[in-house]
From TrEMBL:
Keywords, in A-Z order: Hydrolase
One Gene Ontology biological process: fatty acid catabolic process
Pfam families with a match to the protein in the record: 4HBT
Keyword Nucleotide-binding applies: no
Keyword Transmembrane: no
CDD domains in the cross-refs: BFIT_BACH
GO CC terms in record: cytosol
Domain of life: Bacteria
Family membership: Belongs to the acyl coenzyme A hydrolase family.
Listed name of the protein: Thioesterase superfamily
GO molecular function: long-chain fatty acyl-CoA hydrolase activity
Length: 128
């Protein structure tokens, strides 16, 4: 598997020793947080304003993330509603082992964001 050539990751970050669980692998909550950040950046751009996360659905950890993996998070639109945006978040990692580099999908999720106004109330999404 290779990184997609036709689109950019919203977020790219290296997994660090400070992000591990007690077993020494990367903590799932860290990865969920990065996914929420990436999805939020994407949804906020689409909505043209502030968004909040209202639901995280179908989060799947497919393979473990290890320290020094380079994590790339891709985001695609699933649905744009009146005030909400549902996105598909896909997480790929690049792992170097000596001269070999492997790329694999490690997680995916569907995340729902709501566009809000200055009073934190849902606001209509108007696309230009
Ligand atoms: C997001 C929030 C403003 C929505 O308020 P609300 O009164 O429930 O709003 P509504 O019922 O009008 O729903 C707004 C939209 O969200 C969608 N929605 C609400 N709850 C949802 C859920 N659990 N799953 C999927 N979509 C949901 C609705 O379908 C609607 O979409 P649409 O306008 O595109 O049709 C409110 O729930 C909130 O502030 N939640 C906390 C958000 C937050 O702080 N997130 C970070 C947590 S640390």
């Amino acid at each position: 598997m290779e990184l997609p050539q036709d689109k950019h990751a919203v977020l790219r970050i290296m997994a660090r020793p400070s992000d591990v669980n007690i077993a020494g692998d990367i903590f799932g909550g860290w990865l969920m947080s990065q996914c929420d950040i990436a999805g939020g950046i994407y949804a906020s751009r689409l909505a043209g304003g502030r968004v909040v996360t209202v639901a995280v659905n179908n989060f799947q950890f497919i393979a473990p993330v290890l320290v020094a993996d380079i994590v790339s998070i891709y985001v695609d639109t699933i649905r744009i509603g009146t005030t909400s945006i549902t996105v598909k978040v896909t997480v790929l990692i690049e792992r170097r082992d000596g001269k070999n580099e492997t790329t694999m999908k490690v997680a995916e999720a569907d995340i729902v964001y709501v566009h809000i106004d200055e009073n934190r109330q849902p606001a209509a999404i108007t696309q230009e």
